[in-house]
Structure formats: C-alpha cells, structure tokens
Design brief:
The complex is a heterodimer of chains A (about 120) and B (about 110). Helix content of chain A is about 0%, strand content about 50%. Chain A has about 120 residues and is mainly beta. In chain A, the strands form 2 sheets. In chain A, strands 2, 4, 5, 6, 9, 10 and 11 form a 7-stranded mixed β-sheet that branches. Chain A is globular. The termini of chain A are far apart. The relative contact order of chain A is 0.33. Chain B is mainly beta. Helix content of chain B is about 0%, strand content about 50%. Chain B has no helices and 10 strands. In chain B, strands 1, 3, 4, 8, 9 and 10 form a 6-stranded mixed β-sheet that branches. Chain B has a 4-stranded antiparallel β-sheet with strand order 2-7-6-5, with no helix packed on it. Chain B is globular and about 40 Å long. Classes of the chains: A mainly beta (about 120), B mainly beta (about 110). The interface between A and B is medium-sized, with 27 and 26 residues.
C-alpha cells in the first residue's frame, strides 16, 4: 500500500484481557518501529525490527509486552493482561533503510482504551 | 541520549512565516537533525532533516547553526493546516526519541 496501515484503529479492552495490534509497513521497508503515545505526550520508543530481527526492545515497559515480525513484513504488538496504564495510542513506523538520513513513515495508530 | 529543547507552544498568524527553534547542545558529529509534525488524531509526519547544511523542501526549510547546537524549522507561509505539534529530534542510526515538541497554533 501507499502508507503504513495499522489495525484496529480503536480497541477497547477489559482489564486483564490480551490484545494484539497489527502493523502493515510500506512494502520493502527494512526497518519497523513501535511507539507508545500517552495523551498529551510525545511518542515513546518501544521496540525496533530490522527485517525479522528484533534489534532493540529496550522500550518495552514490562514483560507483558511482546512484539514480533516473523517474515520481515507485518508486525504484531501483543499486550498480555492489559492494565489501565496501558491505555495509549500505539504507533507503528517503517523506514526504507537503517541509516540516520532515512525518514520514518508513521501509521495513524491504534488507540487502546483499557476499562 | 542526545536531547533537544523546544518551546512548549508558539502562535502564528496565517500567511506569515514561522520560525520554530530547537536547541541541541549535546549533539554528536553523526547525529542527523530530523523534524516531524503531528496533526490531531494522526501519526507523526516527516517534515525535513539535515546534518550540517541548510535544507529546503516543499514543506519547509531547515536552518542549522554553524556549531550545530541549534536549528530552526521555517514555515514560509503558515496556513491553518500547519497547526500541529512539531518535534525536533536527533537521530543516530535507528535511535529516534521524541520529546514533548512545540504546539503551533495558527490564527486566521
């Protein structure tokens, strides 16, 4: 597709429920990133993939958060046993290359509300 | 992580130029300066980036100080559609961390 696609656009989960958020990056983009954005804040880095390899997961807030990109294209961010503090917009971005002079293309995000 | 400092908010009148400042006194020689903006209910959008020289594209211009410790994003004629949060970010390889950004309000 022309851009980064994320689904679902909105997700309401009951506390304790598991959720899975999907990201379809731009075809051919090597790098994929997940960010978490709380209301009124800038995006916070969660994790980074280069093709199928997860090279940095230092931003994942707890072991309840898990991300994968098994074939180097589509990625899924899974949150187990959701808590209210997990409520945020989850943004996915992809980049053609790995060098610092490549820009990122972001999706519109998935807004997760935990009730 | 190298950090950036931006004003929390700025206002501009429609059709006038806007200069959005960013300080990054701890920038290293390999850090690129990236600017993104985020419109309401959307993901961040790439605006422009540079290393040492000033850069121009169809959206904006980026002026980089000679010592690289500060930069300015220039919107030549602000429109109502430019109202957004603007983020100045130092990017080293695949490390790109956002701050709080500058919220730009454009008045008609």
């Amino acid at each position: 597709g022309a851009g980064v696609s994320q689904s679902p656009r909105y997700k309401v989960a009951k506390r304790g429920q598991d959720v899975a958020l999907r990201c379809d990056p731009i075809s051919g983009h090597v790098s994929l990133f997940w960010y978490q954005q709380a209301l009124g804040q800038g995006p916070e880095f969660l994790t980074y993939f280069q093709n199928e390899a997860q090279l940095d997961k230092s931003g994942l807030p707890s072991d309840r958060f898990f991300a994968e990109r098994p074939e180097g294209s589509v990625s899924t961010l899974k949150i187990q046993r959701t808590q209210q503090e997990d409520s945020a917009v989850y943004l996915c971005a992809s980049s053609l290359g790995t060098a610092s002079n490549y820009g990122y293309t972001f999706g519109s995000g998935t807004r997760l509300t935990v009730v | 992580d190298a950090k950036t400092t931006q004003p929390n908010s700025m206002e501009s009148n429609e059709e006038e130029p806007v200069h959005l400042p960013c300080n990054h006194s701890t920038i290293s020689g390999t850090d690129y300066i990236h600017w993104y903006r985020q419109l309401p209910s959307q993901g961040p959008e790439y605006v422009i980036h540079g290393l040492t020289s000033n850069v121009n594209n169809r959206m904006a211009s980026l002026a980089i100080a000679e010592d690289r410790k500060s930069s300015t994003l220039i919107l030549h004629r602000a429109t109502l559609r430019d109202a957004a949060v603007y983020y100045c970010i130092l990017r080293a390889n695949n490390d790109m961390r956002f701050g709080a950004g500058t919220r730009l309000t454009v008045k008609p």
